[in-house]
Amino acid sequence: MSKDKNQPLLKSFNLNGLELPNRVVMAPMTRSRADNEGNLPTTELHGEYYKQRASAGLIISEGSQVSTEAVGYVNTPGIHTKEQVSAWKKVTDIIHEADGRIFIQLWHVGRISHPDFHNGEKPLAPSAINPESQSYTYEGFKDTVTPKEMTVEDIKRTVQDFKNAAKNAVEAGFDGIEIHSSNGYLFHQFFNGTSNKRQDEYGGSIENRAKFLFEVLDEVKQVIPEHKIGLRLNPSLDGVFGMKMDEETIPTFDYIVNKLNEYDLAYLHLSEPFTDVSDIPYAVTEIAKHYRPIYKGNLIINTNFDQEKGNKVIEDGDADLVAYGKPYISNPDLVERFEQGVALSDWDEDTFYVPGKKGYLDYEKKTE
């Protein structure tokens, strides 16, 4: 571990008006600690968990559903009811009292769901194509089903769901929102030609497959300023949740990222490949290097970064901030460890998605 108070990760940053004390971002991570009765976060768990990590330059919360239709996992929170807003407000108050900053990630899983979550109805997706994956239900993992192809009315309603969720996020005291348009979930399903076979205005051409995202952005910015909106993308995702890359995948993301320059967003949050895509001829293996010249705003990069790699990607000018996932599970004082040169603690994967305090609140800080 490098001990250097002047390292790039520890330099302050102005995130389009929000002052961050450092460039270390806590990545959004599903931890399955919400109350299933109402999909509520709790002050005892969520409040304490995020408070422990409030020294991060920015916290991005776990994915939170924009509607009941958006649910695909047990014990995950929402942001579409008054009760959820009130519960989240208690959490954001705790974080702000600890001088933290937090965005909420707005989430719709699309076809990565199961009828068990929807009173026996099929989950929604751009096309009726089974991802051949699994959903974690109340009774454990179950195979996904062929989803219902969304009607235009379904799409318009979902656009409004994101708008209402953004409005609720403001009321709940979040510093901003991140639209989860990544990782094989609903937006990504629209982008990808293997999951979107529509013949209407939301399918076919690259522009049509990206239309849903920009309709959401245009509605959301009416209830929260653009400079408080972030967006997450995973361009070289392959073999996860039924996503398969094709020759139009990267041109689609190039189009999306170029068009995002028309907005004054807080940031664009990109993931490096989750799997080895070096044998895929049309994949991009170095996402930050590819998109830094294209995107003119603030860029967060994610996936398998340690302290050294994080400092280097900022120093090289390929990103402005670095998001850390698993290291933040077991190292609530990650920023201080980077600063003081303290070795990182290992995480326990067996407790990633198990309700309760174990593996959630009991990782010790080892810095002053």
What does this protein structure show overall?
α5 runs parallel beside α6. The chain has about 375 residues and is an alpha/beta fold. It has a single domain (about 10-350), classed as Alpha-Beta Barrel (TIM Barrel), CATH 3.20.20. It is about 30% helix and about 15% strand. It contains ten helices and 14 strands. The longest helix has 20 residues, at about 150-170. The two termini are about 15 Å apart. The protein has helices spanning about 45-50, 80-95, 150-170, 185-190, 205-220, 250-260, 285-290, 305-315, 325-330, 335-340; strands spanning about 15, 20, 25, 60-65, 100-105, 125, 135, 140-145, 150, 175-180, 230-235, 265-270, 300, 320-325. The strands form four sheets. The protein has an eight-stranded parallel β-barrel with strand order 3-4-5-10-11-12-13-14.
Q: What is the strand arrangement across the widest sheet?
A: 3-4-5-10-11-12-13-14
Could you estimate the helical fraction of the residues in percent? Answer: 25-40%
Tell me the total number of β-strands: 14
Strand residue content: 15-25%
Give the overall average pLDDT.
Answer: 97
Q: Based on helices, strands and strand pairing, what is the structural class?
A: alpha/beta
Distance between the termini: 16 Å
> What's the story with the biggest beta sheet?
8 strands, parallel, barrel
Shape type? globular
Q: Which oligomeric state applies?
A: single chain
Q: What's the CATH C level? A: Alpha Beta
> What name does the CATH topology carry?
TIM Barrel
How large is the radius of gyration?
19 Å
Identify the CATH homologous superfamily: Aldolase class I
Q: Please give the CATH architecture.
A: Alpha-Beta Barrel
Counting DSSP H or I runs of 4 or more residues, the number of helices is: 10
SSE order = EEEHEHEEEEEHEHHEHEHEHEHH
List segments where confidence is low: pLDDT < 50 over at least 5 consecutive residues.
none
| Number of structural domains | 1
